[in-house]
Amino acid sequence: MELDIVELSRLQFAMTAMYHFLFVPLTLGLSIIVAIMETVYVMTNRPIWRQMTKFWGTLFGINFVLGVATGITMEFQFGMNWSYYSHYVGDIFGAPLAIEGLMAFFMEATFVGLFFFGWEKLSKRAHLIVAWLVAIGSNFSALWILIANGWMQNPVGAAFNPVSMRMEMTSFYDVVFNPVAQAKFVHTVSAGYVTAAVFVLGVSAWYLLKGRHVDLARRSIAVAAAFGLASALSVIVLGDESGYEATDNQKMKLAAIEGMWHTEPAPASFTLVGFPDMQARETHYAIHIPYVMGLIGTRSLTQEIPGIAELVENAEARIKSGIIAYDALEQLRAAGGEATDALRTQFEDHSADLGYAFLLKRYVDDPREATEHQIALASNDTVPTVWPLFWAFRLMVGFGFGFLGVMIYFFYRANWKGMTFPRPALWLAVLIIPTPWIAAELGWFVAEFGRQPWTVDGVLPTAMSVSHLSVADLAITLAGFVTFYSVLFVIEMGLMLKYIRKGPYMDVAETDQWMARHEHRLRTHDGNVPGAAPAE
């Protein structure tokens, strides 16, 4: 029954998080693209760039509102479904979460309002500053969430306090500048930029296929292709950096992603494809690329990457060390102020492994009473299910290189082929619109599923983190969340499609003013018709 509660709690959080992340990447990327378009408008004073800013800004606004609505629920879930986790690590996790809330609901919300309602009330430059503050606020809001998540992957700047029986922050600097968090931030926001670039590219391609809003579509493709090319390169480079960080901090996750059951001589090869077998502890029909995994994971030709079997042995040793820490902790609590220095030293020497002793709570109430068999079971629990991680990672990487190829092609056509795009390429751009979201969800699956069985890696097992809720409570609320979020998703899609079909808002007054100012130049350029190139 306890395992049912744990699995249902995990499923509920996974569903709400994955629904929420349908909106986040587009918000991150569109905010930057819209700010770039408005920058061009202010620099050139050409009405079409204002039109582009307003059109893509409208789609950004729809997505932003629903992203905020779905994100609120997640923060409440920490207290409702993961109450022991919130109690145990709230001193550390709560700080970046609170800062994110302040940025999202004050900075972002304020400047989003000014962006949409300030067109006629602010000067062009003031409105441009607002646009960039919206983009910066959106991205910095994501930074604090990823700092919190990065700490769960690599819990630095904190220590366990045997008096309060909680983790407490020892260095805010270390939490903020956690290398795992920083790598996750730049990789995640770059993925959001690719998502927005593919979205703008696909919608613009659809306009060209329909022969509508051609000037806007061509310029939007040029912006999306340039921005997307830089972003796709960043995703690949920064994803490599995330893999390097995992070598130091999450060795089991890396071994599971690679399907590496035993330590290989350095430098390890990369398994291109294969079929991991959890029972046989081997990967069948594997195709290896020599040296690549060693270079990615260690940046060297001599350092080994440990395999799953060796990491399980290490986990068993750490569980036994954790039992010593647990025993010393119980004696410290019983002795109170009369605890000896030897007892404190014993606890401090083994406190880093206390979380591994908690893995035994699944099998026995008191870890000190665990049998060798139960210790072996707990050490094997540190291995996540390999085949979903193995394939999810490869699909994600495949999508990433695919996006790079698409952006290179459209960048080339936009800059060296006179903004001409073959119809098959335009249809491809339309068809791949959903794929960045699939890649992003796969990335989060790899990050979070690969961390199991830990909520906080090496510190707090997932099975200990949940609230004392009934299976019925969780099943009913899970069904409710899925239903409600599905309705929100349908609303999102309906609104986005409505405004895409409607097309950009024609700012007739400003267009007429611009045309009047440039009529002589246009007549000279085109021969006779002032309106021949209204979007120039």
What does this structure look like?
Helices cover about 70% and strands about 5% of the residues. It is built from 21 helices and six strands. The protein has helices spanning about 1-20, 25-45, 45-80, 85-115, 125-155, 170-175, 180-210, 215-250, 250-260, 290-300, 310-335, 340-350, 355-360, 370-380, 385-415, 425-430, 435-450, 460-465, 470-500, 510-515, 520-525, and strands at about 160, 165-170, 270-275, 280-290, 455, 460. Strand 3 (about 270-275) and strand 4 (about 280-290) form a beta hairpin. Helix 2 runs antiparallel to helix 3, helix 4 (about 85-115) runs antiparallel to helix 5 and helix 7 packs antiparallel against helix 17 (about 435-450).
Number of strands: 6
Largest sheet: 2 strands, antiparallel
List the domain count as a whole number: 2
Pattern of helices and strands: HHHHHEEHHHHEEHHHHHHHHEEHHHH
Number of helices: 21
Secondary-structure class: mainly alpha
Kindly, what is the distance between the CA atoms of the first and last residues, rounded to a whole number of angstroms? Answer: 67 Å
Looking across the biggest beta sheet, what order are the strands in? 1-2
